[in-house]
Amino acid sequence: xxxxxxxxxxxxxxxxxxxxxxxxxxxxxxxxxxxxxxxxxxxxxxxxxxxxxxxxxxxxxxxxxxxxxxxxxxxxxxxxxxxxxxxxxxxxxxxxxxxxxxxxxxxxxxxxxxxxxxxxxxxxxxxxxxxxxxxxxxxxxxxxxxxxxxxxxxxxxxxxxxxxxxxxxxxxxxxxxxxxxxxxxxxxxxxxxxxxxxxxxxxxxxxxxxxxxxxxxxxxxxxxxxxxxxxxxxxxxxxxxxxxxxxxxxxxxxxxxxxxxxxxxxxxxxxxxxxxxxxxxxxxxxxxxxxxxxxxxxxxxxxxxxxxxxxxxxxxxxxxxxxxxxxxxxxxxxxxxxxxxxxxxxxxxxxxxxxxxxxxxxxxxxxxxxxxxxxxxxxxxxxxxxx
Amino acid sequence: xxxxxxxxxxxxxxxxxxxxxxxxxxxxxxxxxxxxxxxxxxxxxxxxxxxxxxxxxxxxxxxxxxxxxxxxxxxxxxxxxxxxxxxxxxxxxxxxxxxxxxxxxxxxxxxxxxxxxxxxxxxxxxxxxxxxxxxxxxxxxxxxxxxxxxxxxxxxxxxxxxxxxxxxxxxxxxxxxxxxxxxxxxxxxxxxxxxxxxxxxxxxxxxxxxxxxxxxxxxxxxxxxxxxxxxxxxxxxxxxxxxxxxxxxxxxxxxxxxxxxxxxxxxxxxxxxxxxxxxxxxxxxxxxxxxxxxxxxxxxxxxxxxxxxxxxxxxxxxxxxxxxxxxxxxxxxxxxxxxxxxxxxxxxxxxxxxxxxxxxxxxxxxxxxxxxxxxxxxxxxxxxxxxxxxxxxxxxxxxxxxxxxxxxxxxxxxxxxxxxxxxxxxxxxxxxxxxxxxxxxxxxxxxxxxxxxxxxxxxxxxxxxxxxxxxxxxxxxxxxxxxxxxxxxxxxxxxxxxxxxxxxxxxxxxxxxxxxxxxxxxxxxxxxxxxxxxxxxxxxxxxxxxxxxxxxxxxxxxxxxxxxxxxxxxxxxxxxxxxxxxxxxxxxxxxxxxxxxxxxxxxxxxxxxxxxxxxxxxxxxxxxxxxxxxxxxxxxxxxxxxxxxxxxxxxxxxxxxxxxxxxxxxxxxxxxxxxxxxxxxxxxxxxxxxxxxxxxxxxxxxxxxxxxxxxxxxxxxxxxxxxxxxxxxxxxxxxxxxxxxxxxxxxxxxxxxxxxxxxxxxxxxxxxxxxxxxxxxxxxxxxxxxxxxxxxxxxxxxxxxxxxxxxxxxxxxxxxxxxxxxxxxxxxxxxxxxxxxxxxxxxxxxxxxxxxxxxxxxxxxxxxxxxxxxxxxxxxxxxxxxxxxxxxxxxxxxxxxxxxxxxxxxxxxxxxxxxxxxxxxxxxxxxxxxxxxxxxxxxxxxxxxxxxxxxxxxxxxxxxxxxxxxxxxxxxxxxxxxxxxxxxxxxxxxxxxxxxxxxxxxxxxxxxxxxxxxxxxxxxxxxxxxxxxxxxxxxxxxxxxxxxxxxxxxxxxxxxxxxxxxxxxxxxxxxxxxxxxxxxxxxxxxxxxxxxxxxxxxxxxxxxxxxxxxxxxxxxxxxxxxxxx
Lengths: 387, 1125
Description:
The structure holds two protein chains of two kinds. Chain A is 22% helix and 33% strand. By secondary structure, chain A is an alpha/beta fold. In chain A, helix 8 (236-247) links the parallel strand 15 (222-225) and strand 16 (252-255). In chain A, helix 8 packs across helix 9. Chain B is of the alpha/beta class. Among the domains of chain B are: 9-118, Rossmann fold, CATH 3.40.50.20; 166-218, Dna Ligase, domain 1 (2-Layer Sandwich); 561-618 and 629-689, Rossmann fold (3-Layer(aba) Sandwich); 967-1106, Methylglyoxal synthase-like domain (Rossmann fold), CATH 3.40.50. The two termini of chain B are 51 Å apart. Chain B has 39 helices and 39 strands. At the A-B interface, helix 3 and strand 17 of A face strand 11, helix 9 and helix 16 of B. Chain A: This is Carbamoyl phosphate synthase small chain.
């Protein structure tokens, strides 16, 4: 409760919040987004999908369990800045190897604490996600605002190249090897190959610029399109790749950004949500079973279906595309956002949310089983389309 | 899946009287259930013996049976109502146990009644310890846990002491002992030694209805968590809330300081709990509805064990509902009739579905409220048996803010850290030592230890495992304290930081003596522009817009209070339940809301009729803190600082919106807590409506009240006030012993004693440490053998008085009115007595200047009426009287406070057109109120029962009502509802004081004639035999080699009823018969301690033997009462 150095946060519309320096001292810019998860800050910070974003945590106490060696979702922290209300002074957990603030400082992440994060969140909810700057070196909001307005926008940002792996690597199956999957890394989280491995899948993680030949050269039985940051409208390369995969009838599964890529490959559009879905409590309806799953989300863009306005109820009917019939398999119950696509005539399905969780509930873990079943169906009866 | 169309009529079972472990959270849940079911067009029948609940208000069900919740009576209700289904999961363990008993007796099958919300097998799987262990292991396998057997503590179910000893030989001490099928952990405990083992396991086997205890490996000191889950019939499951206990394993969760959400779990660990919780829920097969699962987590390696689950709505689910804004009981009721979670809208956002998991952007802290001071001799160590009588919850934007708010919500002498001096001689070492035994107020000890230099690691170790994160939060406060003390001036920055940490003006005043106390800090704070903002509980951390104004304060940047031009009324609630101030006051507050929301508001600027009601309270168990109750809810402590800030926020936002702001603050319905704020609020310019603070003072200040009585020519026992022993003795010498002594300004008879001699008087004054000219001791002549009469009345600005009800106590004067049973209408008073009571009450009401409710206590001795005391506020008996007479007194009081007259209320139909509670028709039903006492919960450190003798200090936690056409029937019902039924056969043990022997002859003779065998002590037997009553002799005290002494007979279950009145007077009365009475408590045998009580019991037993018990809904009784004669 001792005093820290001052810091300011300025949004691109001029709203300013005062707080204290947290993490690294300096200045940073990005897109302000809020995350409503009450657990999982370490996973959030290391999720590449947050690249170039300044994350506001709505949960007031952050850092209580410190950081540990196991919960990183990638090789580094990706958030462009971090906004919290009450950072922990001590770490309390048997797995903790250090404190969160030290880690933030080490990785050069500029943050701000002591902010009325609820007021900030309400502002973003009403006005939409927008650019933001945090500074603990310049206390002049007007000067900072000018710099915020010069910083890059998220709309139109092509970020895959900045987060992807530089070299391919392999995550081996646990136990008996059953299938091989080629995963296109557009910002993959470690828990995806881990969940696949648990089902006997060996995953070859490939850089974002890989070609269809690169993917198939791994001997892949199926292809996975990973989550990741940026505007899907810019992802022409991965979209073309997805069309190649669909044409070859190779089983395809995608998550988040990967789902938007499938959407574009099928000829659908994408759009930017007002303030996105970022949390671990989002209700998604599985239209196949009629059941509701509580899921982990992190997306600022979504698939737009022809003739359906964002927010309108998506009719439960088959949509004709170049690759045959496609159904919306999952819907967010909060706002009717398309959360899953399933092709009827080619072996492909994707979800907009995160069945790999980390952070978040495991309700949607069954989707990895569905993927394994899809692959199995293909390998055992070559050429038959998935019903 | 839409609503089931085959359910047209549902019987809801309530939870009965407020007892430790089962309090008004079930009024909250039951009320919600009734509302929901009726709004779905379903006929609702309700059975609940507790008159103080909102749910037993006749407008909440179609047929309300205020009848005992026993299989016998519930069957009568089923036979009469023929419902399609019974919903037992919202009435706590009582309802669930009753449902199981009805099922086992074949009653449900006989009448074709379906059990909804739970099924019998799931209840068994959840509550039978051995079955549950297997379930957990299976659930572990289901989700692929490596060591499923390790998910429960190693343990064994035992049915005898021999089995218990064998098991402990394997597991080693310490072990935990948990009896099966008891509520609130009753009878459970931790055995560190063989002696502990014998005692606790022995009592546990006796407490369990199936004579079964679980002996298990100790997980003492592990971290403790709870999850609240909901499941629908489509197998959708959501976790509504996670709760972390600050007190590690070893203290019952009801007695622990708890926090929501969990603070010290990573996502990985939290998701393991979630997976496991859901798997257990599915494996148990909870059909639909809410469920609570408790876990222990080893802080060293993260091993999780599942401790228990409750397949029903619980105390924790009420807390979780208030903590998150997700109304578990309401949703559970909807799920029970067939809806699925995705079909139910989220109440708060309206746009999103209930099929989601609330996320919090604030911290919730709950602190239990204890009442050890009421039970001298009871062991105050906190264990796995719940002992707290209430709780307060608070919300803050961080942990310390919520913690400090919760601590000052307790209404104890200490109002947060530093507001009371440290115990003298406190050192780091002895403070650390004191931490080893969990006790009430342990957080104060933690703070002191840290302040005196103990490290966090030392405090974690000494406290047996309080998490370092929590300790660091408190250490932060200790550092802040040092800064505040050392600062040259309390500047804006430091003051703001202190407020953000949750410190109250009073706490700051304690650290900065130059600031002229709390008022000085407030003045400074306001001058610096430092005021709280109000945030909203919205289930979603602001992701979606909230439509429900459910607020809490915080020192943050932005307020969310929306201005409203409607005239507003603030209703101050009663805070945490405690003995003397419980659910009855919540009932009155809720009634005020109901009455004022629809009342004509006197030509408001907004044009609408009805006041905007604003509730302020901090008790999470109540109906008043349901965000559905008032127009706006502020979940805030009831301290002056917190209340005046709410008033300011509402008043200024209302005025800014062009309205009149707050037009009234009601303080007279929430008991002593808000009443105590009245004068200060008024002085600060707050419009306190109803009886003025000056009038309140007039009633409470002994001298002024005495002269009021004298002027009106009303008799009162001779009395005086004293500030020293010498003064007290002088008064006692003058008015003569026995005398009744008490501190001024108390509720529930706190510190009240009857004193028979100088020695005891000197001792009493010596113990009354806070005696001062401002707080003198009142010394009254005590009227022996008088009949006590309780009156609730209304008085308006014209001085018109409406007599709500005249209650006659069954026990003679000297027993606190809250603990004695009473009858309405009075059963032995003459018409002239009632007329005199009316005349007296009118004179007092007008003399004080009451505008609303007044409660007066009288004693009738030798045909003369004496005024004992008058309280110008809602009393505990208001709901009882309202239900017995079909008149909503609290609603009328709220209306009167805002200007209505009794004549207007009669014209409106809220009050009867003619007559009142003093003119009930001769054929009016008789209502008997019986108190429920918590003696079973307490043990002395040596493990003996505490004394169950009643006196002028209130000890009951709740009450029941029996209502019927005759006194005998009504009394029998009250006993069945409170304690288990009066016996109809068997042995009765009688031992009475000499002065009572004469009075006892007739009742005991009657019992003998009814076929009971009488066992008596020598003196009593001699008198009885002389009157032709055959009786066996039993020695009062244990004699070696014999087992026919009174205590052995009682503990052996060989007598069905105990009649024991204390011999002698004063302290000797207390010791006499102590062993007999505490044995009766231990063995759960009815124990009668007064002659009138015995007479009433005889009439009740007769009614039971006749076997003509009937049940009638309040609606039918009220229709008769409200029909013009």
